[in-house]
Design goal:
The chain has 8 helices and 15 strands. With 269 residues, the chain is of the alpha+beta class. It folds into 2 domains: 137 residues, Fructose-1,6-Bisphosphatase, subunit A, domain 1 (Fructose-1,6-Bisphosphatase, Chain A, domain 1); 118 residues, D-Maltodextrin-Binding Protein, domain 2, CATH 3.40.190. α1 runs antiparallel to α2. The longest helix is centred in the first third of the chain and has 22 residues. It is globular.
Length: 269
């Protein structure tokens, strides 16, 4: 079997790659240099170093495409690695431990392999299409919570929220008064990984990109949950997602329709 068709081999190498990138980012954290891609959207030299490590390691595994947040390499193919070298750069730059190295292998817009590492804690999540989702080698499942007022939810705010707060804050307020609680960790990939393992019961956010959500989508679906956009439509983790409104709603599945209804009510006049 060719290496690029051996998913077990690819998963092993993907996990090794995110660990290597995570070590590189940790070593750079204290003296990190920060630039800005927007008014409040930082990028560090560690983002670029981590991305380069990932590309170098994954490039060895076969003739795949690449879609990378920091644009170190873009080679659009039917099957490609989707890479977020540091998800939660604001946290990383401030010394907060809630950040991740996040990769997925995506085929025709659907993730088939995922690996998400939180380097400060060493927790690593991975999943294979049809094979389940795992945390540090142990199978994980979404939570059994059925009532929204018993649900612990998570969210994030887009970098343009200070310019366009309306929709973001309407949805936030709706869930604030209808759920048990809301957390805002600052890393979409970890929000989704924590939903997959049952720490959170649901997650929503808008203005994300394929590299933010591809790994988490597979983790949640393989753990028994559901992932859609705010309209309830399936998400494809490729360029088509970038052209849409880039919203995501992820849940344990049991709460999904309730959360969709809540979001829908915020658009009613």
């Amino acid at each position: 079997m060719r290496r690029e068709n051996n998913v077990g081999f690819l998963l092993k190498k993907a996990v090794a790659a995110v660990r290597k990138a995570g070590r590189a980012a940790l070593l750079m954290q204290k003296g990190v240099h920060i630039d800005y891609k927007g008014a409040i959207n930082p990028v560090t030299d560690a983002d670029k170093k981590s991305e380069r490590v990932l590309i170098d390691e994954l490039f060895k595994l076969g003739d795949f495409g690449f879609l990378c947040e920091e644009n170190t390499l873009e080679k659009i193919r039917e099957t490609m690695w989707v890479i977020d070298p540091i998800d939660g750069t604001v946290n990383y730059a401030h010394g907060d431990p809630t950040w991740a190295v996040n990769i997925a292998l995506v085929k025709k817009g659907e993730p088939v392999l995922a690996a998400t590492l939180n380097p400060p804690t060493g927790e690593i999540f991975w999943a294979l299409k049809g094979k389940g989702a795992f945390l540090n080698g142990k199978r994980i499942r979404v939570s059994p919570v059925r009532r929204l007022n018993r649900a612990l939810l998570s969210t994030g705010f887009p970098y343009n929220v200070w310019q366009k707060p309306g929709k973001v804050m309407r949805i936030f307020r709706k869930f604030l008064v209808s759920s048990q609680g809301i957390r805002r960790p600052g890393s979409a990939s970890l929000d989704m990984a924590f939903t997959a393992c049952g720490r959170f019961d649901g997650f929503w956010e808008q203005n994300l990109y394929p590299w933010d959500i591809a790994a988490g989508k597979l983790l949640i679906e393989e753990a028994g949950g559901r992932v859609t956009d705010y309209s309830g439509d399936r998400i494809k983790c490729d360029r088509t997602y970038i052209r849409k409104d880039r919203s995501i709603l992820a849940s344990n599945g049991l709460l999904h329709n309730k959360m969709l209804s809540a979001i829908g009510e915020t658009t009613k006049r």
